[in-house]
Design a protein that fits this description.
about 280 residues; alpha/beta; Rossmann fold; four-stranded antiparallel sheet; 12 strands; about 30% helix; globular
C-alpha cells in the first residue's frame, strides 16, 4: 500500500496540489480543524477519486482545492503558485467545480445552462462570440446532449441533467474538473453513464479530474488514482490495485471483504462484504 510517507505523491506530475494544507471552520472558541497539514499531488490527465467514510473531510478538501475556502495554514498550489494569489476569474479559467447540490433557474434549457460556462471569459471588452458558441456546442457534443439543447432541465432524467451540468463545466475550457459526488442520487444506469463520460474526458481529452466518490467499488472501477482519507488526513494513495486492500477497507469502513480482479477491467472487486468491529477512530467534516 502506498501512503504519504512513501513519497508517492511527490513522484506525480501535478498542476494542482495541496502543500501542508489545513482547513477548518467556526469562530475561535468553537473552531474545528477538518483538514490537518495535508500534502497531496493530483496526477495530470487522470481521474482521481477521493474516498473515505462520511465526515472524513472529502468535500472540505475539494472546496479548498477550488479556492472556496481560505486555509488555516499551508497552501493550495495551482501551476506552482498559491491559488489565492490568482484573481477569481483566472482560477475559473483553470478550474471548473461541480458541487454536489446544483440549482438552476426555473425554465432554463440545456443550452442556456451550458452557456453559463463561458461567463469567466465575458466582460465589458469581451462579449459573446462565435468562438463561445463553438465551445458550447463542443461541450454539449462531448457530454452527448446535443439533441437535448432545447429541453428544460426539469423535464430530463437525473443522468441527463448531470451530463448537462458537466457540459457547462466543460464549456469553461479548464484543464481541471473538480466533482463532488457526481453520481449522488442517480440510479445504477445513470451512474455508469456519468462515470463513463468522466473516464472519456480524462483518457481521450486529457482533462485532470478529481472527484469525491461515496462508493468505493465505483472508485476502483473508474478512477486511475485513489486518495483514501480518514479524519482529515490521507492514509493511502495510488492506483486502485495497489492501494485498495482488505486491511484498508476494514480501517476506513469497518467491514471485512475479499478482493478479486474484475474480469473486465482487472481493477479490485469487493466480495463477501460484512461488518466488523475494527475501524479507525476519529472524524472530520
Amino acid at each position: 500500500m502506498n501512503s504519504p510517507a512513501d513519497g508517492h505523491a511527490a513522484a506525480t506530475t501535478d498542476t494542482l496540489r495541496a502543500n501542508e494544507l489545513s482547513l477548518g471552520y467556526g469562530a475561535r472558541q468553537r473552531h474545528v480543524t477538518v483538514i490537518d497539514a495535508l500534502t497531496l499531488g493530483l496526477p495530470d490527465g487522470k481521474v482521481t477519486a477521493i474516498v473515505g467514510p462520511n465526515g472524513c473531510g472529502k468535500s472540505t478538501l475539494l472546496a479548498g482545492l477550488a479556492r472556496l475556502q481560505l486555509p488555516e495554514s499551508g497552501a493550495v498550489l495551482l501551476e506552482g503558485k498559491d491559488i489565492h494569489a490568482y484573481k477569481r476569474r483566472e482560477v475559473a479559467q483553470r478550474i471548473a467545480l461541480l458541487p454536489q447540490e446544483t440549482h438552476s433557474p426555473e425554465g432554463v434549457t440545456v443550452h442556456e445552462l451550458v452557456r453559463f460556462g463561458r461567463q469567466p471569459y465575458q466582460g465589458a471588452l469581451s462579449q459573446w462570440s462565435e468562438e463561445d458558441q463553438r465551445l458550447v456546442a463542443e461541450a454539449m457534443a462531448a457530454a452527448d446532449i446535443e439533441n437535448l439543447a432545447d429541453r428544460e432541465l426539469a423535464s430530463m432524467s437525473g443522468g441527463q441533467r448531470q451530463r448537462a451540468w458537466i457540459a457547462m463545466a466543460l464549456a469553461q475550457q479548464t484543464p481541471l474538473l473538480l466533482l463532488d459526488e457526481p453520481t449522488s442520487a442517480l440510479d445504477l444506469g445513470h451512474q455508469i453513464e456519468v462515470f463513463e463520460l468522466i473516464q472519456r474526458l480524462a483518457h481521450e481529452e486529457g482533462k485532470t479530474i478529481v472527484m469525491v466518490v461515496h462508493d468505493l467499488a465505483s472508485a476502483c472501477r473508474y478512477a486511475d488514482h485513489i486518495v483514501a482519507m480518514h479524519a482529515g488526513r490521507v492514509i493511502a494513495e495510488g492506483a486502485p490495485a495497489e492501494v485498495v486492500t482488505p486491511e484498508l477497507v476494514r480501517k476506513l469502513y469497518g467491514v471485512e471483504c475479499r478482493l478479486i480482479p474484475d474480469p473486465d477491467t482487472g481493477t479490485p472487486l469487493l466480495i463477501g462484504v460484512r461488518r466488523t468491529s475494527e475501524r479507525l477512530s476519529g472524524s472530520a467534516t
